[in-house]
Fold:
Amino acid sequence: MRVLMTSWAWPSHYLPMVPLGWALRAAGHEVRVASQPALGQVITDSGQVAVATGPDLDHDEVHRRVMRDLRLTAVPDAPPPGETMRHWTPEKRDRVRRVFGVFTAYADAMLEDLYAYARSWRPDLIVFDPTTYAAPLVGAALGIPAVRHVHGVDVTYQAREVVAELVAPLAARLGLTEYDVLGVSTVDPCPPSMQVPTDVERIPTRYIPYNGRAIRPDWLREPSRRTRVCVTWGTSTTRLAGFRFFAPPVVVSAAEGLDAELVVTLTGQEVDSFTDVPASVRVVRSVPLDLLLPHCAAVVHQGGNGTILTAAYHGIPQLVLPQLPDQMFHTERLVATGAGVALRAADADRDSIRTALVDVLTEPRYRAAAQALRAEMHATPTPADILPDLEALR
Structure:
């Protein structure tokens, strides 16, 4: 079977699909990964063959042009799980349209090249990141089943009607009058207890953490003499929300005096801005969570799907400080399982963070719920196990 995987050029949108790509290759299937050239190194680092589709875009320019004066922090919260935006006011829908218009701009840039490659290579199946809208359109135009691969909690499902309106001009360019931006099925690595109710056909699979290329640091070989807590801020939050909402310094201040070792893992620019920390704090550059979290008693983070699910995979209690609308939606689903607590930005001062962190570290119910969530995840089929379900879609 030939499988074309595709994502627009944002690493955190591609990385969750990598374990399925490995499973397909290990089973003897041919796999190609189509994206803009900027993602090429990330794709080849994961062991897959990259296919350049469309030009690279300046994300900051696209963001300014499409979002205009709208900040992500001013975007309305997603509707309740399983509901839609159908009854929202025009003003609220317009703000959401601008957010998803950014993804539509990438779909516009990729559409022709993705169509041309798929028509030439003739894959049996297309597997796509849920915001790479060119993929289900190309699949519909060529009669190729397109399968959505969500990252975790399915927040994109909540915007399905808005997205269908946004991509209508792209569908018209391919001569389409009927299409479904949700594809024919959904590969779903989210634990069922966290997932939202939907009317899509889902193929449940186990979340397998993959954070990109990794070298295990020597200091992880020795156990910490104190309780170790991971503090991270994902890979996209600062770029999207700005340093104004950068919470790790407040977390470090809140943990002062606790018998704990804080490991703060950040990206390049964030590390450079994070100086003058106590001796009990270790600041590191981009240590993959899959290597670090098994050695931690808790994690403090921003609420991205990848961070939530990696912590859940390792059974780690979580303190979440969500900043963006999608992070708030993910976090609500995690908190409902009992495996963590959350503080919104307006409530996340030094004292409230300290109280919540002590609670997560000392109350056994959080670890018990985190371990139950881990057991639920590990009971779901592996990516290799679901290959017959994908083959049946051809």
Summary: The longest strand covers residues 260-266. The radius of gyration is 21 Å.
